[in-house]
Amino acid sequence: MRRNSQDNYQKRRLISTYFSVVISISLVLFLVGMLGLLLLNSKKVADHFKEQIALTIYINDAAKPIEVKQLQKSLTLRSETKNTRFVSKEEAAETHSKEIGEDFMEFLGYNPLLSSIDVYFNASYVSPAFLSNLQKDLETKNYINEVIYDEPLVEILDENIKKITQWVLILSGVFILVAILLINSSIRLSIYSKRMIIKTMQLVGATKSFIRRPFIWKHLQLGILGSLIALGALSGVLYELNQRFPELNIIANPIEPALIFSGILGMGILITGLSTFFATQRFLNLTTEAVQ
Predict the structure, then answer these.
(1) What does the pLDDT look like over 14-32, one tens digit per residue?
(2) I need a labelling partner for 201 at 20 to 30 A (CA). Which of 68, 91, 181, 232 fits?
(3) Which CATH fold would you assign to the domain 54-149?
(4) Sheet with 115-121: strands ordered across
């Protein structure tokens, strides 16, 4: 009876140890995965804002329709351009009247606004240098009255994106280091509880590789289980983000999340395998007195 009670206690203790290892692995890998998603989507958020910035080209009333069409076509065909939109002076007047809540042309007797072309660019090209050079180039055309864009916004956005990316990369590195240390610590505690078994097997003539093999295999299984739990939680977060912010197209390119998921699974297996190897090796190298 006492023997059964002792066996049940050992089984409960073993299950508790394995449970703590799996929870540690899944929590740490989930946090690392969240940072990966943050890094990935911070770029998408930045790209989304960049692509909303328009370069507006105001056309003189004396400009020929063919000149305006050719200008819009040439801008549309540029590799940097995402899309263009022509706004006639009548459309501009209608929009302005709605904004101010009254028909300003009734007071003036004419429409002072100019037709314009709004040009939106692919995010990778939106930079102060590119927009400034294009602005200078367009202003040389005699049928163009003015070329404007939100210069302060572009500069602030460009500068802040670089800072945010740098800090996220630093935090990712710190979290990966913490992940390695925490998972390694959990596994070492798990192996420590079996140090007497390891030493007993060694005393009866078992080789080091024979002793290590079941420990490594068992903890690899725990590492895979912890990784899968973390991936399940990350999938839920990814789905929720996609539902709340559809404009970001988070899962439009499945390769990017797949790379993060593969990295999390690989990290769980690699860290678990190496930690188990070195933890068992440590106890194998200890003397019987030191183990006790």
Answers:
(1) 567 677 778 878 888 888 8
(2) 181
(3) Alpha-Beta Plaits (3.30.70)
(4) 81-87, 115-121, 54-59, 144-148
